[in-house]
Amino acid sequence: MAQKVIKFMDTSFRDGFQSVFGARVTTADFLPALQASVEAGITHFEAGGGARFQSLFFYCGESAFDMMDQFRKQVGPDANLQTLARGINVVALSQQPRDIIGLHAKMFKKHGMTTIRNFDALNDVRNLKYSGEMIHKHGLKHQIVIAVMDLPPGCEGAHTSEFYLDRLRQILESDIPFDSICFKDASGTCNPRKLYETVKGARKMVSADTVLWVHSHDTAGVGVTQYMAAIEAGIDGIDLSKSPVSGGTAQPDILSMWHALKGTEWTLDVDHLKILKAEEVFEECMKDYFFPPEAKMVTPIVPLSPMPGGALTANTMMMRDTGTLHLYKDVIKEMGDVVRLGGFGTSVTPVSQFYFQQAFLNVTQGPWKKINPAYGEMVLGYFGRTPVPADPEVVRIASEQLGKPVFTGDPLDELDPGIPKAEAILSQHGLPVTDENLFIIASCEAKGLDFLLGKAEMSIRKKSDEPKVAMHPSKTQTDTVRAYQVVVDGQSYNVQVGPSGAPLVAHAHAPADPIAHGEGLDVHAPTPGKIMALKVAVGDQVNAEDVILVMEAMKMETDIKAPIAGRITGIYISEKDNVQTGDVLLTIG
């Protein structure tokens, strides 16, 4: 009997990049591997969207639209190029109004995409309706998603096969246009038996010609087992990747899956020798990139605190940047409580980031002392309905800290049009008002503007860029050089302090205000993070609650406000500095 061919999408150049490198890969570096993949006979690629949209502007100094154009040119006109969208967030971390959702579909069609996979982390079908209509309107194929995972132990009330099949029923009863259905497990935690029962039930609910797909990660070590269960239950297609961005936090490898299907009634339509050759080319292309060790390993704690593969390395990369990687295990453990009390939204972007950010705050500031605004808005209902109601005490704290009531309406109805705002920003800075620029401003905000103004900063980890530090054989350098501004006898100095605490460099400034002596109340960093904007200078007069600087940690920007009125008498940090909890930032006298 002939074997049934299981379809697959090659996710190497989108989810693979996101799951291993935090999405920070330049187009020129991977194009030879893409060409080798085409020569290997692959015709269905994930080509953008998700974090691979913002990351190109934020970290790679290039346009995601240009990347998509080059992708299409490389693969030819007939390949199925697919991207990832987050319902009403599209490719942003915040919700987008209707005009920007429409512009998203229009621009992705213009720049060569074929299919958009469209999910809502809360599985609120309302959030898929308008975005699905826009995808269909602009001539793209719409793959609608049910987001799946396993809950931390002790949680119940959602994320069962019955829950997912109820969401499928809601989709089928709606008038949302779609071309295929995907069960997307961003954390790789959905146990294989549950996935089997879900796909088996779905197969009975849809017509025989409805295409069903499954997406997962190997973070918990069960990716191939999940796919085998889904295939046995009647799935049509799966997501696979290629070495060196397969396994671990990414998708199972094409050749691993091909091998697992030997002796069964299913197969992949691949030439394994050609795939092997494509992997060799890919490995050569990526040889200079820094591979985080956590990206290439099974993480057994993930089923207890579901962290998506695509977010795991993005978060650890940011923690490396801010010197907080030592907190990672504590934050992951704390995620269990954050998920349990937050209403069971699926741990996939952007909700997975809300979870991680809130867990980060709980670890660094104390449990629930500070509510991350996005997490707070989620439990209050501003992103849609969570699968189960959030914990009442967390809801109360969020409402109190954010000054917002519980919201039960449609999130889209609360959003003002985005195009007029984006037009005003472009005009204010003398930038061309094009559809592309409008969408960049709307979805990437300040960092999108920095890119358009030529101020984007490259932040890609490559082995050849790592600093070469000479050290005494018996010692290791554990601290980085720190920079401070200090005032001595009215004279302002920039001082760099080495790992031993000894000053390395001291540069004098022009004489400071005579009273800028550094005496008064010290303002400390509330969390680890990076100084994004310094709003004051030595000698400035401030009022209590004035914003004096902005810190960023884990994609959260936090305003640091003056605790008292007074004059700034000392500043000990500069913009772009990394700081730790408790570091003195400045002094108010």
CATH class of the largest domain: Alpha Beta
CATH architecture assignment name of the largest domain: Alpha-Beta Barrel
Beta-strand segment tally:
21
Percent range for helical residues? 25-40%
Query: In one word, what is the shape?
Result: globular
- Give the N-terminus to C-terminus distance in angstroms: 84 Å
- Helix/strand-derived category reads alpha/beta
Low-confidence stretches: 469-494, 498-517
Under CATH, the homologous superfamily of the largest domain reads Aldolase class I
Number of domains: 2
Average pLDDT: 89
Question: Biggest sheet, in brief?
Answer: 8 strands, parallel
In DSSP terms (H or I, runs of 4 or more residues), the helix count works out at 18
Record the strand order, biggest sheet.
2-9-8-7-6-5-4-3
Approximate strand percentage? 15-25%
CATH fold descriptor of the largest domain: TIM Barrel
Any idea what the radius of gyration is?
A: 25 Å
If you had to describe this structure to a student in words, what would you say it looks like?
The chain is α/β, with parallel strands linked by helices and 589 residues long. It folds into two domains: 4-288 and 295-402, TIM Barrel; 482-588, RNA polymerase II/Efflux pump adaptor protein, barrel-sandwich hybrid domain (OB fold (Dihydrolipoamide Acetyltransferase, E2P)). Helix content is 37%, strand content 18%. It is built from 18 helices and 21 strands. The protein has helices at residues 12-21, 27-39, 51-58, 64-75, 98-110, 126-137, 161-173, 192-205, 223-233, 254-260, 272-285, 309-321, 328-341, 351-365, 373-380, 392-402, 419-428, 435-452; strands spanning 4-5, 7-10, 44-49, 80-85, 115-118, 141-147, 180-184, 211-215, 237-240, 266-267, 482-488, 491-497, 503-511, 521-524, 529-534, 541-542, 547-553, 556-561, 566-571, 578-579, 584-588. The chain has an eight-stranded parallel sheet with strand order 2-9-8-7-6-5-4-3. A four-stranded antiparallel sheet has the order 14-21-19-16, with no helix packed on it. Helix 5 packs across helix 18.
